[in-house]
């Protein structure tokens, strides 16, 4: 993991006052994105570089909009889990334009959102972490994109016992969506940097 942090640091330019740099940390479920981002953030802070972190799963829509919609399960996960156009306008495109964001953070327990007020420093690194970040709607909105690659069998072992027991859902919802992403977007070819985890 330390080698990955070193590789990531090399992609960050020396920021001039008033500049912001957007890094996307892409990868499929349980590939190690969150752990990488936490260590990367600590290292940036240690170098006195301000950082804002955005987890794309914080911005999913309510269950009624992504389950039992009449579409196939993989389609619901890939195309309906997030309001991609709203996020494009209200998150991605504003990261360099505004000093303050109001974003609806999803609460899984209550299946509701609460508004979060986020202050973005004038000079900072914005890190967006999540799955399917290089999808067509969001491609081109990063200064640098990292893809964390990890085999499915290893990722599955990192899932909870409950998730591992529900293999039908894994196959029909998650794995089919992942395969669609890998085959149509080619994230390992589009990313600036691919890290094997």
TrEMBL record:
- Kindly indicate whether the keyword DNA repair belongs to this entry: no
Alphabetical UniProt keywords: Kinase, Transferase
Name the domain of life this protein comes from: Bacteria
Ranges where the Phosphoribulokinase/uridine kinase domain occurs: 22-193
Q: Which InterPro entries match?
A: P-loop_NTPase (IPR027417), PRK/URK (IPR006083)
What is a single molecular function from GO for this protein?
kinase activity
Read off the Pfam families from this record. Answer: PRK
Query: By what name is this protein known?
Result: Kinase
